[in-house]
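Entry 14. Structure prediction run on the chain below.
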Amino acid sequence: MAGESTQSERSVSYFSESIAKISEFLSGIYDDPNKISLVASNCKSSEISAAPLNGEKIDNLLEELFARFEHNFCNVFSPAYFGYISPRPHPLGVIGDFLALGVNQTPGAWRAGPAATKIELEVLTWFRNLFNIPQPDSEFPGGIFTGGGTIANLIALKLARDAANPDSKLNGISSSCRVYCSNDSHFSIDKSIDFLGIGSRNLVKISVDSQGLVNLEELRLAIESDLEKGYHPIAIIGTVGTTATAAIEPIRELSAIAKEFRCWFHVDAAAGLPYAACAEIRESMKGIELADSITFDPCKWMFMSFGVGCLLVKDGRRLYDSCSAGGGYWEDKEELDLFQQNLYGTRQFRSLGIWMLLRGLGFNGYRKLLLNVLDCTALFQSLINADSRFILLEKNSKLPVICFKTANMGIEKELVEFCQGHNICYPTLLNWNNEYYLRFAFSNYEISPEKVKSIYQEICVAYDRLSSTR
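Output returned:
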């Protein structure tokens, strides 16, 4: 009807007020994360709301959303949440991400976001400074941003495929290609092999020892055997921070084997790379600077919100040769168009949140957050190790993941469920070599020694209660 404002107009007029309400809601969670359960769910995936035919008031929408989140929430803000390396997002990153959404610039092409592209280049350079990785070998940017580690691993394996078979972009791939990784590698490797058409039979998985470290002799024998059978080894993948136990595989030794057999060497450091910023942990990653490509997830121990990944490469020219494409609708102005080095065309400007985080904290401030997480993990590990009721999987964990089982009781599953159900803490259940372990991934930069001790004491009480019923 004439005189009525449209939903679009109302949205603009309510913008500041709505942002203030969202800020108040989020601030409440940041300030008091314990007011929401660790994991709450009272909805069903099969219950879908009716399609909206007419517009509704923004205030009503926000009120409904806040209620939905309060009653259906995975509380990564809580220092008692230890699931899957899911971080409490740092406010600086959230502010940067919000601004990036609002200005709607894409770093995919210079003309579509010159400031965004420049900021992305700065962040890529800072990563190498922070993690002590040499700058790229060519004039091309030595990395790209993705929507997560899965796509970064996919692109890395495409680079490996194209490096081994320069005609594969034109003619497809040979069925004789072989890729090697440990059997504790992330499932995204399996997905990437499938999506690239290499075939799961050509992904050779090498066993790991009791600490999650890949068997180097078995790897070498597998490659030699495949060569004798006429296969073409194209890539070796090492992992810095396996998802199960956060093991750091012997990167330097894997790099040497890759060089010997002329394979692309990719390091999946989606989880562990941030700790290369800490000298005491960087030593365990020796050789990572030799990698042809490195996957990194800032949405883990860089405390960014979900949905941002990164691939660093030794030679940026490889990205351009493997990913460049165009069409009559795109005028080549000889500008820096990062879509030519990426699977994505237009994409979100997710590097701005990281830029804000690193500028706001500085490298030293960021390291303090990492070391606090590491110190609290070490405290928890020492408490568990000194307790005869529990057995650690690894007594010298380098990264902030602790796995342990109960001594002679076999109540790991019950203990996990009890801790989750009684809002004590949120560990996950790990099946390691057909034995169950409680897995604690420390990823909240606000965690304190006092909180660690409190959680440990509550776990002990829960253990005693459960064991008394056996």
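The chain has a mean pLDDT of 93.
Filed with the rest of this week's runs.
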